[in-house]
């Protein structure tokens, strides 16, 4: 077991290590234009500088804050709408086709409109996050509730549970793995879409730091920004996974496994 | 004894390709309080449909089900052929499920403990359904029905999915459990021997109709029980 785990970690690190060595050697032998590919040492000192001055942290905090607020808005609206539609099946014929249309429009394409309507303040950026994360949360919650095993719901009937009790004690716990998977996908989307929004209209945030660096011709800062995005994207995903693993594995829940295979995004 | 349940002229029709199919046909049945009634019949004879209508899981087409006034039954408990435990709850939590939030926590956990002991599930209390055998899962389902405060328990082939050893063992335990308490039981099975072993009265159902009723003598000799079994099988095959 232990050996296997170590082996997996080594395998995961192999390719990054190769890329890093090529980067180091190429820079040393001056194979790359240092304006296009800054040497590792330069990127490292820039990272240290941005950290020491608190610049990186300031941008990170702003970006995190936006993701947090945007995702909270998404979760409330998408979750509630999914519950309402799942419980009132007649409504779905009116609402789902429109949502299906909206789902195919990439939020980035809407940014110019959002800027016109909402300005370049926080609202337009939060809206981009909401648009980008709404569907994974909404669709996975909806399918989790709709795929609830009617045989288990009957158990609720047999023991005299009210409609409300059946929903909270049987339907919702059974849909939980699907809801969590939807949230996990949504969180990943929110991080990526936010950076996109900050590239276009912002005066702070990691995305802004990157676009500003482009204008200053500072590829080293761009690379620090890119690494930060990837690193914290992984970190968010990992933390969320650790927080929810218990619910996904609880009782070896069969639903968890099946939902992993038919997630919506 | 006082009847607890009276079923009169119960008919259930399903629409199949535009024609009405009678799954139950004019069933008349009286269930005395504290009795153990078994229902046998071939598969498709309407056994499950009968129980589901009594439980209120399905509506009768015509006919009536009356609980006798004064009986404390509001809703019967139901044990399905599959255990139908909630996979995200432990054995203990599954047994507590019907009374969760309806009883003080201390009182509830005492009652659950008693059921766990009665059914030999104590060491599995913290296990999840996916971690226990089919026999243990069915015991937990039984505990869940026993803890529910009702005098009437409906069981739909609860031992049908078990192997012969587990089945025999649970049959004996069921007999002891129900000899010791006042519950009224309607027990469906397709196994005639099981029906005789457990029941005080055996009802034979065929094509939605009651073909015959047999009383099981309490102090019967083996030869008598054998004749009874032959009679029931003849009645089913007639
Ligand atoms: N929901 C249903 N729709 C149509 N036919 C049904 C339905 N449920 C049961 N039946 C039919 O009613 C008959 C009795 O079924 P059931 O009560 O399940 O029998 P048993 O439990 O004795 O095997 C069968 O012929 C079955 O096909
Ligand atoms: Mg059946």
Automatic annotation (TrEMBL), chain A:
Annotated localization: Cell membrane
Give the CC-aspect GO terms.
plasma membrane
Q: Which residues form the ABC transmembrane type-1 domain?
A: 60-240
Highest taxon in the source lineage: Bacteria
InterPro entries for the chain? MetI-like, MetI-like_sf
* A single GO BP: alkanesulfonate transmembrane transport
Q: Which UniProt keywords apply?
A: Cell membrane, Membrane, Transmembrane, Transmembrane helix, Transport
One Pfam family recorded for the sequence? BPD_transp_1
Record flagged with keyword Cell membrane: yes
Q: Report TM segments.
A: 12-32, 64-89, 101-120, 126-146, 193-211, 223-241
Query: What topology does the record note for this protein and the membrane?
Result: Multi-pass membrane protein
Name the family: Belongs to the binding-protein-dependent transport system permease family.
Q: What is this protein called?
A: Sulfonate transport system permease protein
This chain's source organism reads Halanaerobium salsuginis
TrEMBL record, chain B:
Respond yes or no to whether keyword Transcription is given for this record.
no
List, in alphabetical order, the Gene Ontology terms for molecular function in this entry: ATP binding; ATP hydrolysis activity
Q: Which residues form the ABC transporter domain?
A: 5-232
SMART domains per record: AAA
The record's section on InterPro entries has:
AAA+_ATPase (IPR003593), ABC_transporter-like_ATP-bd (IPR003439), ABC_transporter-like_CS (IPR017871), ABC_transporter_ATP-bind (IPR050166), P-loop_NTPase (IPR027417)
Entry-linked Gene3D superfamilies? P-loop containing nucleotide triphosphate hydrolases
Transport among the record's keywords? yes
What keywords are assigned to this protein?
Answer: ATP-binding, Nucleotide-binding, Transport
Which PANTHER family does this chain map to?
ALIPHATIC SULFONATES IMPORT ATP-BINDING PROTEIN SSUB, TAURINE IMPORT ATP-BINDING PROTEIN-RELATED
Spell out the protein name for this chain.
Answer: Sulfonate transport system ATP-binding protein
């Amino acid at each position: 077991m232990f050996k296997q785990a170590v082996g997996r970690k080594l395998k995961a690190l192999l390719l990054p290590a190769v890329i890093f060595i090529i980067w180091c050697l190429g820079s040393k032998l001056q194979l790359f234009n240092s304006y296009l590919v800054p040497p590792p040492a330069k990127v490292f000192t820039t990272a240290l500088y941005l950290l020491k001055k608190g610049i990186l942290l300031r941008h990170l905090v702003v970006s995190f804050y936006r993701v947090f607020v945007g995702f909270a808005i998404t979760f409330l609206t998408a979750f509630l709408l999914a519950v309402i539609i799942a419980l009132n099946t007649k409504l779905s014929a009116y609402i789902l086709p429109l949502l299906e249309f909206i789902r195919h429009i990439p939020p980035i394409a809407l940014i110019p409109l959002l800027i016109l309507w909402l300005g370049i303040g926080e609202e337009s950026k939060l809206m981009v996050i909401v648009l980008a994360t709404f569907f994974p949360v909404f669709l996975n919650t909806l399918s989790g509730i709709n795929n609830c095993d009617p045989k288990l719901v009957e158990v609720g009937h047999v023991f005299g549970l009210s409609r409300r009790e059946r929903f909270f004690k049987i339907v919702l716990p059974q849909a939980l793995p699907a809801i969590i998977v939807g949230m996990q996908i949504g969180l990943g989307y929110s991080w990526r879409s936010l950076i996109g929004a900050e590239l276009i209209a912002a005066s702070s945030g990691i995305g802004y730091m990157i676009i500003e660096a482009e204008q200053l011709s500072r590829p080293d800062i761009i690379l620090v920004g890119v690494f930060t995005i990837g690193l914290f994207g992984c970190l968010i995903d990992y933390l969320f996974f650790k927080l929810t693993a218990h619910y996904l594995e609880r009782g070896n829940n069969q639903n968890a496994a099946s939902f992993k295979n038919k997630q919506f995004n | 004894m006082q009847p607890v349940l009276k079923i009169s002229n119960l008919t259930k029709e399903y629409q199949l390709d535009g024609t009405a199919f009678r799954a139950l046909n004019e069933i008349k049945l009286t269930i005395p309080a504290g009795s153990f009634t078994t229902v046998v019949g071939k598969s498709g004879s309407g056994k499950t449909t009968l129980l589901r209508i009594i439980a209120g899981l399905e509506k009768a087409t015509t006919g009536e089900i009356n609980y006798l006034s004064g009986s404390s039954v509001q809703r019967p408990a139901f044990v399905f052929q599959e255990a139908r435990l909630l996979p995200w709850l432990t054995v203990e939590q599954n047994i507590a499920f019907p009374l969760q939030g309806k009883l003080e926590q201390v009182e509830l956990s005492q009652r659950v403990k008693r059921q766990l002991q009665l059914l030999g599930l104590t060491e599995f209390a913290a296990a999840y359904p996916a971690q226990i055998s089919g026999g243990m899962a069915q015991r937990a389902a039984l505990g869940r029905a026993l803890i529910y405060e009702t005098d009437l328990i409906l069981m739909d082939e609860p031992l049908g999915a078990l192997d012969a050893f587990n089945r025999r063992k649970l049959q004996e335990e069921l007999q002891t459990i129900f000899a010791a308490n006042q519950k009224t039981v309607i027990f469906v099975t397709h196994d005639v021997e099981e029906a005789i072993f457990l029941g005080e009265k055996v009802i034979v159902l065929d094509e939605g109709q009651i073909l015959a009723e047999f009383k099981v003598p309490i102090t019967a000799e083996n030869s008598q029980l054998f004749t009874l079994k032959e009679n029931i099988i003849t009645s089913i095959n007639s």
